[in-house]
Amino acid sequence: MTDKYPGLSSYTDRHGKVRWRYRTKERVVSLPAPNQPGFKDAYQAAVEGRKVPKAPVVQMPGAALPGTFGAAFQRLKISVKWLALDEASKRKNTRLIEEFLELRVVTDHPLVWRNVPVKNLRRIHVEELLGRFIATPHKAKHLLVGIRKLVYVALRQDWIEIDPTAAVEWRPAYAGWKAWSREAMAQFEKRWQLGTAARTCYGLALWLGNRRADVAGLRWDQRVTRRVFIDGIERHFDGFDIVQAKNKGRTGGKRLFVPITPMLSEILDAADRRGETVLVNGYGEPFSAKSLTGMMAHWCKLAGLPKGLTLHGLRKSLGVYLAEAEASTRQLMDVLGHDDIDHAELYSREASQVRLAVQGMDRVVRLVTRKPMLGEPVGEPRGEPPYKALINNDNGGPGGTRTPNQAVMSRRL
After folding, report:
1. What values do phi and psi take at 240, rounded to 5?
2. Which residue, 128, 169, 275, 341, has fewest beta-carbon neighbours within 10 Å?
């Protein structure tokens, strides 16, 4: 070897490892072993008196410096909370966090947030990051959620003591999904007859208020009968007993019983029963939850409907129906499966505003003119009569009648 490479020699260091070097009277240059990559270039540079080029640093996939946001993401992915998330939530969070990690700290410098220690994060940095997404405020909100997940990991690992995102608020205005108009519903129903997959999917989303994963996974064996006592009378209701797919891996999902309305019963009677699930494709196989978004857009296009009408919009339409029927917030929550009041009221805010505004102005008109505000009646009266027989009254209990004077006095009271 020394004959082939003059000046090359080896020695054993104090740790027992063999080292190689190029040595002359003037200088000694350390070299990699002859069997290692880059040896020939390093030897030639040593002979010519040039600086030995260093091997390029190659970052291995998944590698991260200790205490950085990259390391925090590695630890997040093995945490119990992360593993309990459903696959769709994992994909969404991974996409947003990876986008954050690859963002440059300063636009004209190659340093990215993946390699920045979490302890160096300040509130002004977070606000500047969110400002980059001012055109997409909801994406900025979800990005903030992803950053906070990494910060919480750093807090648990004692990398930091204070959460720099705690004082950051980002709450963009949210109008929710667009509810379907009655005209759009009529047009869709005219195009897609009973028994088609399009009509079945539409009916499940509208009359059960299900999300797309629950629509795709609804099974015939989940159809049950429940006994319910209303005003002391036992009644039997046909419906679906389901466990919502949302948060199923993390909390077990919320269990709901939703009764089958006559409108849905008509759809179910004509549905294809070849599969285990209620909704099946032309081959009798279930749809995937992800495919239903594109399929509903396709069905709407064939029905001549404009863009923007979604499967989740039918869920909101049921919320609007409930609001127009003056269902309580608690009733709306138990039909749609919400846990927080604010989210439930989002579906009925528009319908409630119109009805309450008319009722309020009607009171003003009655006060000023002593006459009710006239509204143009359309069709036959819907719903229950305004005055029902009292359960316990002065005429002997249920089913008793009231005299006109008693009815007037009751309304005044």
Report:
1. -110, 130
2. 169
Q: Provide the whole-model pTM.
A: 0.61
Same domain, 121 and 186: no
Q: In this structure, are 151 and 193 located in the same domain?
A: no
- DSSP designation for 37: T
| CATH classification of the domain holding 270 | 1.10.443.10
Same-domain check for residues 242 and 320: yes
How many domains is the chain partitioned into structurally?
Answer: 3
7 phi-psi bin (left φ>0, alpha ψ -120 to 50, beta other): left
pLDDT in tens, 144-189: 999 999 999 999 999 999 999 988 887 766 556 788 999 999 999 9
Q: What is the pLDDT of residues 198-210, one digit of tens each?
A: 999 999 999 998 8
Closest CA to 59 of 18, 101, 100, 97: 101
Please say whether the beta carbons of 292 and 216 come within 8 A: yes
CB of 72 within 8 A of CB of 146? no
Distance CA 129, CA 360 (A): 45
